[in-house]
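Data card: per-record layout.
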Amino acid sequence: MHLLPGRSILYMKVGTHAKEDLAEIIARKRREIEDEGFAMWGYGGNTCHPTTMVRPFANASAEPIVLCMQPMISKHFAEPIRAEQFSSNGTDWQPIPIGINVLGSRYALCIGSLDEVNETLDLGATRVAVGNSRGRNGRDYVKGRVDKACLELVESGVAESTVVNIGLVAEVVDPYAVLLKA
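The structure for this 182-residue chain is written out next.
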């Protein structure tokens, strides 16, 4: 993984989602990428809202955004209801391709790859890249219930270290993030 200062990343904690364990999700998303050319990685929460955070973040980045995922034990047991439509702007809606299943989510990241890795990320060497918390240290931002963030890597050693294990990486592809509806 090429995580050098200045690189833009999306950080996200991942685990069981909509009654499906992480291994099942990974296998399904890899099939979707192989069959459809991309997959939609579902999520919720406004810290990475598609239209106000992720899309502006991706559009401002000189390089493709890397999604860095930290596996965790999760208790997300929402109903696995398939989203039927997606929108990049909240106005124009399109059907989700039949070969893509995004379940129990309000939003999704569009990914063109999904690789298992054994890497580390020092959240102390990141800063929030967009929104009201722009410039805040990533280590301080990702606490408590905050489990995802649009971050920029900065020089290491700028703050106290908080090293997390990254088990999955994906390239986020256009249209980057979308809103969903069943």
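Known properties of this structure: Strands lie at 8-14, 39-43, 65-71, 85-87, 94-95, 107-111, 115-122, 126-128, 148-153, 163-181. The chain has one domain: 8-181.

See the next section for split statistics.
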